[in-house]
Amino acid sequence: MGKGGASIPDEEWERFLKEAEAGGAGAPEEPSARARMVAQRLREEPGGPPEGWRTYTPARQRKGKGWAALGLAAAVAVVVVAVGPWGIADWFDGDGTGATPLAAESERPTGPPAGEGTDRPPTLDEPFRGSPAARWSDGTAGIHLPEARATGWMSRAEVARALEKTRDFLAASALDPAVLRGERPDEAMALINPHQSDVRDYLKKAFRAPDRENDPLLLFSRFRSSDVRPAGDVVKTRGRVTFQEGERGAVQVSTDVTYVYPVVRAAGGDDEVARTIVRREVVMSWDDPAKIVIEPGTFSLVSYKVDTTNGGCDTYTGYLTPAFLAERAATRPDGGAEVDPYDRSTSMEERMRESEDEGCGTASRS
């Protein structure tokens, strides 16, 4: 399906989910995301706590922990973004701030970004005013790709293609205008190995009956166009992609990207701008088809973590639900720790460990 097109019919979707049930001769069983994560965790952190944590933040932040039902280690958080009759240019052209973009993030920063005049609220003309994102790049330009090198079963050129496809997945899952309008992320899902039974089950449930453990927002940014529309033409991003050799010679790619979505109420009548910040870490494995049952050009999903600010707390509708000032004033935080959603100096693993109880915390800025 092209960007902005209609969702595929349910019958075709069912065929997609049920296809490829038989593996190639001599190929191992279909890759289990849970098995991958457990093995990795045992290698890296013997005796440590399990990784599946959840963290939410609107003007509040939801915290918690647990494995996702599909067997993926997951940390969750909901975000707020806009939707409406927009084209691709609506999300990628210009920032309206005149600020000089920062250099690409090639490694983890040593501390949180300095304050950016948080006493100055955003406006329709400057939706990122008062936010560190004013100096971030637009769309995929803010996602740093490393230089490719031969790794595992892949040549340098093959690794380069895998990195490009990885960025394609990030764009299709968190920046595609149709997906942001609430449509099904067909292009993104087409890049996920259809032989992963746990992922197939998750995707099927997430779009039919979303709940805490089967929530499309774990991997995709989606909003109701009847609720919000974009404030301006840009989604700001900052993040990086890294890779290493994984199991059975696979190329394991880790992505850690923060997305900032400015929105206004769809109903109109005022020009109040709200921002939703979503930091999402997705780990994927580009497997050797001689060793893993996988379709060409797809990856096996290993794990995900999500930390969301102003996207909804304890809401499982399958859509991000941003709050505006009046709604925030009516909802008091429940005592959760204060978190800076722009701080990328702390790993997602550390961020999830900071909060051990479920609930909604407070974001220090938006």
From TrEMBL:
Keywords: Membrane, Transmembrane, Transmembrane helix. Residues 19-57, 98-141, 330-366 are annotated as: Disordered. The chain crosses the membrane at residues 67-88. Residues 117-128, 341-354 have a biased composition (Basic and acidic residues). This is Uncharacterized protein. The lineage of its organism: Bacteria, Bacillati, Actinomycetota, Actinomycetes, Kitasatosporales.
